[in-house]
Amino acid sequence: MTTLDGPMTDITIGELVAEQPALARVFERLGIDYCCGGKRSLGEACAAHGLDAASVARGLAACDGRGGTDDHGNWLLTSTSQLIDHIIAVHHGYLRAELPRLAGLIAKVTQAHGEREPHLAELQRVFAAFRAELDDHMLKEERILFPMIRQLETARGPVTLHCGTVENPIRVMVSEHDNAGAALARMRELTHGFAVPPEGCNTYRVMLEGLHELEADMHRHVHEENNILFPKAVQAEAALAPRG
């Protein structure tokens, strides 16, 4: 089903989703990380989850051409500027609206249920740190990294960057993506997979639904950066380097 070279089990998860975005839903169902863990091959990811790689590969091949692409399109086919515009408008816009709302919901639920459920206090702490780092992360991308990538896209010759190479800020952003992924995993663990407890009120339910949606959007967001935008930027810089 893929145009990439080699057996499907040798292809990275990130490459598979970049080529066919609808596969993200399959990996979500299997519990396979396609964003921060996108550099692992399908075979490695399946082994880590105790899945038969050949069976999973056959299932993915059967998805070829079904269901089209997801709502966010195939970003391999667009310019880096178009992808950046999408990330800022869709993902950064979503986070700037949703993070304050979720913070309020978590505070209300913790106040109402925290005495009986002490893990909610940790959820509030993990979310607060996650939010603070993401707020700073988005500013660094929009003010520093993304303008560099746009500059590389339009340049006609070697570009001198104050950070030496675009790979330096990319490494920082990837590290922060890993931190966000770890926080999301901890929030999932603390909420038992976003399951509403029997005594959960409507606010509790809305909070968990919001956290689940946040996780899904962050997976798409980080995938589009780690596995598509950042590799494109590195390739663009390499193409502009003087040939010796």
Describe the structure.
- It contains eight helices and no strands.
- The chain has two domains: 8-62, no CATH class; 75-240, no CATH class.
- The chain has 244 residues and is mostly helical.
- The protein has helices spanning 13-19, 23-30, 42-48, 53-62, 80-113, 119-154, 167-190, 202-240.
- Helices cover 68% and strands 0% of the residues.
Compact overview of the structure:
Helices cover 68% and strands 0% of the residues.
Helix content: 55-70%
**Major beta sheet summary:** none
Low-confidence stretches: 1-5, 65-72
- Using only C-alpha atoms, the radius of gyration works out to 20 Å
Number of helical elements: 8
How many DSSP-defined strands?
A: 0
Tally of structural domains: 2
Structural class: mainly alpha
Task: Look at the structure and give the mean pLDDT.
Answer: 89
Beginning-to-end CA distance, first to last residue: 39 Å
Shape: globular
- What does the oligomeric state look like here? single chain
* Proportion in β-strands: under 5%
Q: Helix and strand string, N-terminal first?
A: HHHHHHHH
Give descriptors for this structure:
single chain; 244 residues; mainly alpha; 2 domains; 8 helices; 68% helix; globular
Blueprint of the fold:
Layout: H1 13-19, H2 23-30, H3 42-48, H4 53-62, H5 80-113, H6 119-154, H7 167-190, H8 202-240
